[in-house]
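Please describe the entry underneath.
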Amino acid sequence: MDSNPKKYDKNYFNNKKSKYAWELWEYNQNKLDLIKSKGYYIEVVWESDFNSDKTIIEKIINKYEQQNNVSTPERSKN
């Protein structure tokens, strides 16, 4: 994913991709919608979100485990 919406204005031009942020967001949303339409769960975690909360991945996993009443084997916390 490119151009974190929390970090970039919609009219930010990404020179590497030769697209505006809003175009990248639209393209990425279409990809996410396609993946979800196939029955997959998907969460977007931006680097800034992870840096501010190192447990965010664990929280997401726990959320899906609770929603689906499943448990996974003990995960390594290395």
Observations:
- The first helix runs from residue 21 to 37.
- The chain has two domains: 1-42, 45-78.
- Residues 1-42 form one domain.
